[in-house]
């Protein structure tokens, strides 16, 4: 049986992961509207990945005898000034998610909830990858600047994800 504090944190994380999926789907839609099809593809796959993260927490909570409590998902933005602004938001969002995962890990350690620690190790590693991917794209977009050719090239590269 899982403790109430961990159950609450995991339910909050389910909501955060669902919001992440919703946010990236909104970003994908914007990219499509702006005819950045590679960026749209990358975001759509990212939205699917975030949904799978929510389901990992969902399944874990059920396996531990907890109660899943789904809350309303906040409405995400639907407009960005540029692909750079969009990916800067992705990076900032992933940093926020990392902080949430780290807080859960700290609580699991505090409560000596070894099962939660083991489950959360995967998410800690995943967040390192998520932040690195977003940071790399931001760095590339900053180097590209106003180069239309560079934007098209990166868009084409991200379409191959």
From TrEMBL:
Domain of life: Archaea
Any one biological process term the GO annotation gives: intracellular iron ion homeostasis
Keywords: Iron, Iron storage, Metal-binding, Oxidoreductase
Any matching Pfam family: Ferritin
Domain Ferritin-like diiron stretches: 1-145
GO MF terms, alphabetically ordered: ferric iron binding; ferrous iron binding; ferroxidase activity; identical protein binding
PROSITE patterns the record matches: FERRITIN_LIKE
Keyword ATP-binding: no
SUPFAM superfamilies tied to this protein: Ferritin-like
GO cellular component: cytosol
Keyword Plastid: no
CDD domains per UniProt: Nonheme_Ferritin
InterPro entries per record: Ferritin, Ferritin-like, Ferritin-like_diiron, Ferritin-like_SF, Ferritin_DPS_dom, Ferritin_prok
Protein name listed in UniProt: Ferritin
